[in-house]
Amino acid sequence: MPLLDATATHPITLPDGRLYRDTVYLKNVIDHPRMEIGDFSYYTHSGEPEDTAGILAPYLFRSSLERLVIGKFVQIARGSYFITSSANHPMTGFTAYPFRIFKPETFGYKDLPVRDTIVGHDVWIGHNAAIMPGVTIGHGAIVAAASVVARDVPPYAVVGGNPAGLIRMRYPAEIIAELLELAWWDWPIDKIEANLPALESGDLAALKRA
Ligand SMILES: CC(C)(COP(=O)(O)OP(=O)(O)OC[C@H]1O[C@@H](n2cnc3c(N)ncnc32)[C@H](O)[C@@H]1OP(=O)(O)O)[C@@H](O)C(=O)NCCC(=O)NCCS
Predict the structure, then answer these.
(1) Is residue 7 part of a domain?
(2) Which of 167, 169, 171 to mutate to test the pocket of ligand 1 (most atoms within 8 A of CB)?
(3) Ligand 1 centroid from CA 140, angstroms
(4) Is the residue at 98 inside a domain?
(5) What residues have CB less than 8 Å from 94, skipping those under 6 apart?
(6) For strand 23-25 and strand 42-44, is the pairing parallel, antiparallel, or unpaired?
């Protein structure tokens, strides 16, 4: 029996047979014109499934110009969220007070920089992390709990702290290059599941033969 079902709203069934309702597959509960989300990426929160977009990225409005792009197999822990570029107040004048947001005719600061936030595939974002506007997090990266990520994160880096700094690289550069080339996240799900022992044990030779 397959382990994953890309169509599920709540993908986790607990050992006692109950659905774990706090975890949702993002793609199946979010319908937002500025968000793009890949299959199997999940997030855990205690709100209703239909509130997920607002909890994940509270300042990404349907009228925002920036995008939040999240790849496949991304794991986002409870309490983590994205501050996207629409969250910024104007900072070039003598006040940051956003006078123009109060009326529909003037809403939106068109002169503020628009920066997309991009999360690659197979990224693990730990508990209570905040991801700042315009950040790109590379494939396979890990964000430590309670981090504030304000700068780009390279693929397969582990970052942590406020501001998040490099804790270590997960693998040597040549292995990372091979993993990026392999791009297992683009395989059909049955091929991924058939090769799970090699993925889980880190058997690169077996993965390359798959
Ligand atoms: C990032 C993480 C995976 C690292 O795990 P690890 O490799 O076992 O880490 P270690 O405990 O050996 O620590 C390695 C270094 O990272 C630092 N570090 C660990 N967690 C950190 C954090 N949250 N913020 C900042 N630095 C952190 C440690 O201080 C240590 O630094 P040092 O080498 O200078 O002493 C883990 O600390 C973490 O944050 N996990 C997230 C768990 C989580 O949020 N789960 C939610 C449900 S999915």
Answers:
(1) no
(2) 167
(3) 16
(4) yes
(5) none
(6) antiparallel
